[in-house]
Amino acid sequence: MEPYKIVPSSKPHPPVVGKVTHHSIELYWDLEKKEKRQGPQEQWLRFSIEEEDPKMHNYGVIYTGYATKHVVEGLEPRTLYRFRLKVTSPSGEYEYSPVVSVATTREPISSEHFHRAVNVNDEDLLLRILEGGHVKVDVPNKFGFTALMVAAQKGYTRLVKILVSNGTDVNLKNGSGKDSLMLACYAGHLDVVKYLRRHGASWDARDLGGCTALHWAADGGHCPVIDWMIKDGCEVDVVDNGSGWTPLMRVSAVTGSQNVASLLIEAGADVNVRDKDGKTPLMIAVLNNHEQLVQLLLDKGADASVKNEFGKGVLEMARVFDRQNVLSLLEERKKKLPRKSSVH
User: For this chain's UniProt record, which GO biological process terms are given (predicted)?
Assistant: First the structure.
């Protein structure tokens, strides 16, 4: 059997391009099946796919064998690649096809990329992703936070503005019912707080525990934010749906911050308000051993004689829980009565 000869006129066709992604290109060839593949393999035509090195302008073999399809993997997105087909006859003669040029596609921008851009405060990348239009601006991350929540919590003011101008919903809530405003108030990012308020965020929103932004701001303890919230008309004695606590009670329970308590009291917070169990801020401060706050509450007119629903007053609570310093403070107070302490 005479070996097959490639005559010059039968220059092979360039590879045909199949599926292209941002990291792979599929190539086909010999679609006409010119050669009936009979007999032993060494009498078949052998195919090689060669890729051009753009810097050196020479070609390197990336596939060789008898198949008629090859997928080139591991490529860069949005990059031009050049391939040619080499067909070798059993006798060793070969011919090259014309070159085919193929560009990989742009990387699909998933919500993961989107959230990564927000996390690292990458403004340019965020803008590029939003311009691409493949991501919904409100898509949550794996913790149920929208990009706005993350940016608000981290204090990325410029990202907050970009997200809002791209139509994000400022009132969305995460799994525990917190919105972006609560997160920004807790973290103390005043610029973000102001911006969210200008764009429709509400002081009245509540999380799953029935707490408002001011409850969270009280926990965060950032006075400039709390001061601005109060001036912005936020309700000072708003009560949560759980324990029936006002922000002042949260301070008495959580941080014991005198500065925050002073701001709230100056804004009209009731020092003798009672929760669902009949406890006052003073009782809560005593139970949590916040000495300086106990002092402040007493100075601001907290009534040390009130009893809880079990008929216990603050002195008994201080004794039971062995709050020695608070106890002596209250004893001192008691001696000075009935002369009403002046309210500073």
Answer: negative regulation of apoptotic process; positive regulation of apoptotic process; positive regulation of DNA-templated transcription
d(CA 344, CA 337): 17
Segments of the chain scoring below 70 in pLDDT: 1-9, 34-36, 109, 337-344
List b or e across 267-294, with b for residues whose CB sees 16 or more CB atoms inside 10 angstroms. Answer: bebbbebbbeeebbbbbbbbbbbbbebb
CB 264 within 8 A of CB 281: no
Identical fold for domains 109-202 and 204-344, yes or no, is yes
> Could you tell me the two tokens for 316?
């008994």
Distances (CA, A) of 102 to 28, 30, 67, 71, 83: 13, 19, 21, 13, 8
Dump pLDDT digits (tens) for 38-74.
Answer: 778 778 889 999 999 989 989 999 999 999 999 999 9
In sequence order, the 6+-apart residues with CB closer than 8 A to the CB of 89 are: 3, 4, 5, 6, 45
Residue 324 phi/psi, 5-degree rounding, is -60, -50
The CATH topology of domain 109-202 is 1.25.40
Q: Quick one: 12-103 is in which CATH superfamily?
A: Immunoglobulins (2.60.40.10)
Amino acid at 123: E
